[in-house]
Amino acid sequence: MDAENEQQNATPDTADAAATKSAVSRRAVIGWAGAGVALGAAAVGSVAAATRQDDPAPAAAAPAGAEVPFYGEHQSGIATPVQDRLHFAAFDVSEKATRESLVKLLKEWTKAAAAMTGGREVGTGAATGLPEAPPDDTGEALGLPASRLTLTIGFGPSLFEKDGVDRFGLKAKRPEALIDLPGFKGDKLDPTRSGGDICVQACADDPQVAVHAIRNLARIGMGTVNIRWSQLGFGKTSSTTPDAQTPRNLMGFKDGTHNIAGTDTAKLADHVWAAPGDGPEWMTGGSYLVARRIRMHIETWDRTSLKEQEDVFGRTKGEGAPYGKAKEHDAPDLKAMPADSHVALAHPDANSGLMILRRGFSFTDGTDGLGRLDAGLFFLAYQRDSRKAFVPLQTRLASSDKLNEYIQHVGSAHFACPAGVRKPGEWWGQALFG
Amino acid sequence: MSARRRSTAAVLLTLAVATAALAGCSSKSDDKAGSSDAVKVNATDTACEVSKTTFAAGHVVLDISNKGSKTTEVYVYGDGDKIVTERENIGPGTKASINAEIKAGSYEIACKPGMVGDGIRQKITVTGASGSAAPADPRLAAAVDAYRKYAQEQADATIPAVEAFAAAIKADDLEKAKSLFAASRTGWERTEPVAESFGDVDPKTDTREDKVEAGQQWTGWHKLEKSLWADAKIGDDEKKLADQLVNDLKDWQKKIPEAEITATSMANGAKELLDEVATNKITGEEDRYSHTDLADFQANVEGAQKAYELLKPVAAEKDADLSKTLDSEFAAINALLAKYKQADGTFTSYDKVTEAERKTFSDAVNSLGEPLSKLAAAVVAK
Fold it and tell me: What local confidence, expressed as pLDDT, does residue A61 receive?
């Protein structure tokens, strides 16, 4: 499932504050106040991050209602402190779309994304405009603050070439790192929950705000792109803020004790952001995203003894301490763990220092037709080059991880997420299409 | 085609937006009634109080407060319970308002606590001011006239088709009846929003099994569909139902000249036809026994396209991009449907259409429905 790699912590990207404020905030007063608080929190966050290793301070993420800047060097939603909720959508570009119509859509999407992440309504708003016309904005986020909404876009392998066809003249720009992911042992992938030409990851502290964002982007996209699949997530499983309590996954174990911190610019540069020369220039400053829908066999897991559960992870269930150690954050001694435990296999020390930034969420889509909880981990990992990170790691885990008895990978996708939109007027994918 | 969905069509048919090109109808002047002039409706579980029972024709605002404990609906009915406007799902303790264009005449306002039954009724009189035709784009008036003609032609052509269907049933010819079922629905499906504006016809002819209300006898096409396909039987009841269907549809045929049609209602009707496809055809709910959904689908698209083509001279001038998009989306959805048309003119049975293919249809419907929802505003925009 994921690499036990981590670090934590992230900073809200201070980079630029409120860009276009032309439209009305959904929550005029609070929206502005929220923005101010966000900036303050960012400053605090940096300090906390700097001192974090020896001195765990209280969590420094921006308050729940605040606004995460949309514009910046990198896309927000990657190093940003992980929000509580997710709506992730994969789109296919429709057959009759052209490069021109796709570019037009990406420009419209960028405008809408800037508005929504700023807590503003899309277009002419939700309850205004001509009475004869359906409102531009669907309205369910009216009155809600920005809720730290981030929208992160990525381009899948099939956008560059599908069934041997270079639909949009992009084939030559496909990064070598954007491979068609290989099959891994034990995969049982559902094609209707896998792949996609384009993805948008919406993260927010309020699920209604995240769902509103995807819904409105999907609506704007109709005719040019169609939703292929989407996934809701809750209860972030991998913190990028080390000072906060490490969240637990649905197996009841702390997940993400050792993740890449959003403030650790050195590690981000080494492991997360594509650097000049890594691949095509349009991806510099971007990151490769692997999404995996990992179903947990909840009922059998729950019938498993505590000892077995702990052996599977190589950590204690209560404290999260590595075997042979007392505290969660104590450096693990991999030899003290069962060799096929998840942590022993996934830890950077066992993988030549390999790290990925995990940003996964738990999911529960009710129950399946057999009455079993349809639940698990929607694994999201960002990395500089998936061929050198997720692929070797997952190859290793798929072949021997003791956890495999209790999980199954049922969805998979790979996307190239470009660098950030730096300022108003620029648009998602501009460096790729421009 | 549930009994319930008809409402939107009715509202739109009378909405204020009017290009006042109401052929055969008088229309109101354009001055909007301020909300201070609004008619207040206090709905409770046992009463339906109206602040005034006589008011002037034109743009009317009903401010509704539901002070009861049940969710309610408010309707304005004209002669023969024709729905002039309505609002559903008004929760206990909430308010809602209706904006409608109401001509001079006698009406009834009904509150329906619990959203069932005929409602608690109150007679109202709307006075004066009719006949002051506002200046309208003559092209829109022409479009409305042409659309009314189209609706009438569709109804006229439906009668022989449904008579042939009924005759096969009465001759106990099960297979022939099945072969004539889909074709008997074409004219109806093409102009459904108009048909649904006559409140009483649609529930009798086109109700699906799950939409039958308590106390309502299930009649019409879908009851016969179930008998023919699921039960594979024709009995006396089916023969009576076949006669009744013919009679009910003749009733519909006669009512077309009374339909209130405006450019706005045409545009919104086109959008509703696509909604109809999106909600009931894509899922295979509409013709769940016969699986002839794609025939209805095609008829809905044809009817929507007809309305659009008639409005296109104005739409193309006011919003060229929208018009271009609609041309391309109609072409795309027609091309997609054509792939499922068989040599004998019938469509692939919908139970043979895979989930993946249904998604392709769904995407095409969304691609057309979304821009189509902008047509009304484009046509009436100043």
Answer: 53
Q: Which residues contact A57 (CB under 8 A, 6 or more apart)?
A: A48, A51, A243
Instruction: Report if residue B6 sits inside a domain.
Output: no
**For the whole model, what pTM was predicted?**
0.78
Same domain, B294 and B320: yes
For the ranges A195-209, B22-36, B72-86, B161-175, the lowest mean pLDDT is seen at: B22-36
Judged by average pLDDT, the poorest of A57-71, A169-183, B55-69, B175-189 is: A57-71
Query: How many other CB atoms sit within 10 Å of the CB of residue B237?
Result: 13
DSSP percent split of chain A into helix, strand, coil, nearest 5? 30, 20, 50
Structurally, chain B folds into a number of domains equal to 2
B12 is a domain residue:
no
Instruction: Check A132 against B15: CB less than 8 A apart.
Output: yes
Q: Are residues B155 and B262 in the same domain?
A: yes
Question: What pLDDT sits at residue B93?
Answer: 85
- Domain limit, last residue, from B68, B96, B127: B127
Q: Are residues B225 and B356 in the same domain?
A: yes
Domain count of the fold of chain A? 1
Residue with tokens 């969240």: A247
The arithmetic mean of pLDDT across residues A410-430, rounded, is 97
In this structure, is residue B47 part of a structural domain? yes
| Domain annotation covers residue A4 | no
Asked whether residue A121 carries a pLDDT value surpassing 70, the answer given is yes
Q: Are B153 and B48 in a shared domain?
A: no
Residue A39 lies in a domain: yes
CB B366 to CB A94 under 8 A? no
Token pair 């276009």: residue? A20
A interface mutation test: which of B275, B328, B366, B382 has the most A CBs within 10 A?
A: B366
Q: Taking the CB of residue A229, how many other CB atoms lie within 10 A of it? A: 20
Say if the ipTM goes beyond 0.95: no
The residue of chain B nearest to residue A129, with distances taken between CA atoms, is B377
Same structural domain for residues B216 and B290? Answer: yes
- Please answer whether residues A68 and A117 qualify as being in contact, where contact means their C-beta atoms are separated by less than 8 angstroms: yes
The H or E element spanning position B88 is strand B83-90
CATH of the domain at B343: 1.20.1420.20
pLDDT digits (tens, 9 = 90+) for A88-114: 999 999 999 999 999 999 999 999 999
Q: With an 8 Å Cβ cutoff, is A223 touching chain B?
A: yes
Please report residues of B whose CB lies closer than 8 A to that of A132: 15, 17, 264, 376-377, 380
Which stretches within chain B are classed as H helix? 6-14, 138-170, 174-190, 192-197, 201-205, 221-225, 236-255, 263-276, 293-318, 320-338, 355-372, 375-380
Question: Residue B304's pLDDT band (boundaries 50, 70, 90)?
Answer: very high
Contact B374 A134 (CB under 8 A): yes
pLDDT digits (tens, 9 = 90+) for A189-229: 999 999 999 999 999 999 999 999 999 999 999 999 999 99
Last residue of a domain, one of B100, B127, B154: B127
* CATH of residue B80: 2.60.40.420
Domain encompassing residue B199: 138-380
Q: How confident is the model at residue A244 (pLDDT cuts 50, 70, 90)?
A: confident
**Residue A9 maps to a domain:** no
Q: What angle do CA B171, B172, B178 make, to 5 degrees?
A: 105
Same domain for B152 and B287, yes or no, is yes
Contact A237, A360 (CB under 8 A): yes
Q: Which residues of A touch B373 (CB under 8 A)?
A: 133-134
CA A64 to chain centre: 18
Residue B333 lies in a domain: yes
